[in-house]
Amino acid sequence: GAGVSQSPSNKVTEKGKDVELRCDPISGHTALYWYRQRLGQGLEFLIYFQGNSAPDKSGLPSDRFSAERTGESVSTLTIQRTQQEDSAVYLCASTAYLGTRSYEQYFGPGTRLTVT
Amino acid sequence: TQLLEQSPQFLSIQEGENLTVYCNSSSVFSSLQWYRQEPGEGPVLLVTVVTGGEVKKLKRLTFQFGDARKDSSLHITAAQPGDTGLYLCAGADSGGGADGLTFGKGTHLIIQP
């Protein structure tokens, strides 16, 4: 079956503009995560959606960042008034809970955002 | 906040050599995953270890979960250039949700032919 897909794969934008990144999770996966990965770094958690529960926004770095998810399908991450420090790869992952002891995540290829 | 520390941060070795990378924490995890990420791609799950002391083998890769479920290691035998990549460990606690998965910063591995 299809994996997690993200679009666009690359986005170059001018400082101050808004951008919208899209994630299509694996069908049937109830949980969806957004991460940010700066060049050469590990993953920085941004936001988490689980079913119809309120999202965990604890990782969002500022109020310029927001995300939505429709049911258990597509999610969009929006960055308003982009800054150069927002340049990074934005990764989306989805997971199907396999019980209480395993949270295997399946990642998309990411969107590389460059703010000029 | 749970913290996973990976070491070494960078490792460059010759093809055919053996290596071990470590993932350590002061916290107990209900399970731990290892991912490999290649340039321009998202991380790909390699293995999940669940039981303290568990050892799993994936061809030339051997993964071990510490007895106390606080640490893990990845050992690669006879490394190949195709093993090059960023290796990430991620620990899950029993609480579920995003808090249940903590990523280390990764080990950048380069295998030179």
Termini separation of chain A (Å)? 37 Å
Question: Could you tell me the radius of gyration of chain A in angstroms?
Answer: 14 Å
The sequence of SSEs of chain A as H and E is EEEEEEEEEE
Beta-strand share of residues of chain A: 35-45%
Strand elements of chain A, count: 10
Question: What is the H/E order of chain B?
Answer: EEEEEEEEEEE
Helix content of chain A: under 10%
Greatest interface and its participating residue counts: A-B, 29 and 28 residues
Mean pLDDT of chain B: 90
Total DSSP helices of chain B? 0
User: Uncertain spans of chain B, ≥5 residues at pLDDT below 50?
Assistant: none
Q: Would you count the extended β strands of chain B for me?
A: 11
The coarse overall form of chain A would be: globular
Helix content of chain B: under 10%
Q: Note the beta-strand portion of chain B.
A: over 45%
Model description:
The complex is a heterodimer of chains A (116) and B (113). In chain A, 0% of the residues lie in helices and 45% in strands. With 116 residues, chain A is mainly β. In chain A, a hairpin with a 5-residue loop joins strand 6 and strand 7. Chain A starts with a strand and ends with a strand. The mean pLDDT of chain A is 89. With 113 residues, chain B is mainly β. In chain B, strand 9 and strand 10 form a beta hairpin. At the A-B interface, strand 4, strand 5 and strand 9 of A face strand 4, strand 5 and strand 9 of B.
